[in-house]
Amino acid sequence: MIPGWIAFTVTAALFQCWRTAMQQRLRGRLSVNAAGVVRYLYGVPVGAALLGLYLLATGAALPGLTGFVLLLSALAGFGQILGTNLLIMAFGHRNFAVGTAYAKTEAIQSAIVGVVLLGEHLSGIAWFGLAVGVAGVLYLSLAGRGTTPGALLRGIAQPAALCGIGAGFCFGFTGVLIRWATQDMPGEDLVCKALALLVLTNSLQTLMQGSWLAWKEPDQFRAVFATWRDSGQVGALSAFGSACWFSAFALAPVALVRAVGQVEILFTLAFSRFYLRETASRADVAGALVVVAGVVLVLAGSR
User: Fold this and answer.
1) What phi, psi does 69 have (nearest 5°)?
2) Residue 253, phi-psi category: left (phi > 0), alpha (psi -120 to 50), beta (remainder)
3) Which of 248, 278, 275 is nearest to 263 (CA)?
4) pLDDT digits over 143-180, tens only?
5) What angle do helix axes 159-184 and 67-92 make, rounded to 10 degrees?
6) pTM passes above 0.70
7) How far is residue 66 from each of residues 63, 104, 182, 279, measured CA to CA in Å?
């Protein structure tokens, strides 16, 4: 039987890929901050509905809330906002490949942060699988862009690379904070606590980034509501994906979740091949096989 955290992670990766595809509809209509706000604003009611349905179905009690959990949720929400903006900033620099490739080191950075803050332990095989998976994702990110491993290393001081590394760190740090908050939150049902944290975090993100948007970009603040049809779909997909991510973080070390979550790039390739009818190159196939090998090693090392 597949462990729950693996099922949650794969489902989260699928929803994330789907949300990214849907978000393309909003390009040109919303700014960076406005596109971020729709994820959280329209995700709050969906997350609340998921939590309510879970409480009704299981009879679980709503978890308690402490000041420390509130602080961790706020920091996690801010970290995700900052990571998203850094990633978009990486896209804006000339060396797109370098910036996005460095952002893919998120799994390794998650592992390091998890060891430092939570004392998580990974086996040698799991660490090796993490490295293999990241190498495969890097290869897929760079394939066909004419960027060699040497150029990647030489470009570490470029703005795109720094933004990419920063984005990867923020996303990894966010996952660790969510796991920490789950462990500290009163209650026994881990999935229930994960869903409660999702609603709390999305609400705080809406307040933080929504307030900034209303102050700095009032026209875009209004556009968030004017585009409610497409924005609502993005928010719903984001909530479903985040519910699965948070549940996976509650059940397993963040590094393992992020490593298995790299299957998202395989969903992207499948979407490209079967929906857009694009032909996969040999480099794409080779990179995908390396990613799969890394995931298999991580799973073998997590037993």
Assistant:
1) -65, -40
2) beta
3) 248
4) 555 555 665 555 565 676 778 788 888 988 999 999 99
5) 160
6) yes
7) 10, 33, 11, 52
